[in-house]
Design brief:
With about 100 residues, this protein is largely without helices or strands. The chain contains 1 helix and 2 strands; from the N terminus they run αββ. It has a two-stranded antiparallel sheet with strand order 1-2. Strand 1 and strand 2 form a beta hairpin. The radius of gyration is 16 Å and the shape is globular.
Length: about 100
């Protein structure tokens, strides 16, 4: 869980100049790193820095809080798997809490 004011969270028109909002491709390299985690791709369109990106995949005291939960994926008609839960807010009330928002 991250606090709502993390440097990589922003709304359209609020982010750093030239940054995109929504579904953005090219943020990570195509191959995972030796630690089996995504590798930051320095292209200037996704994250504020390699340091803030690293916080997404590593514990950073005072920045994020880890919690584990189990999701049950079921086979779907497309020969894939689906997780379907209309009330999916697994971190409500956990970690940093809901920070005055309806959900975490």
């Amino acid at each position: 869980d991250f606090r709502h004011d993390h440097a990589d969270f922003y709304l359209p028109e609020e982010g750093p100049p030239g940054r995109s909002f929504g579904h953005v491709k090219g943020c990570v390299k195509q191959q995972l790193g030796p630690d089996r985690k995504p590798v930051f791709h320095e292209n200037g369109t996704c994250f504020n820095s390699s340091a803030t990106f690293a916080q997404w995949y590593n514990d950073a005291p005072g920045v994020n809080i880890r919690d584990n939960f189990t999701m049950e994926f079921l086979p779907n008609e497309f020969e894939g798997l689906t997780y379907d839960n209309q009330a999916f807010f697994p971190f409500d009330g956990k970690a940093w809490g809901n920070e005055d928002f309806g959900h975490n």
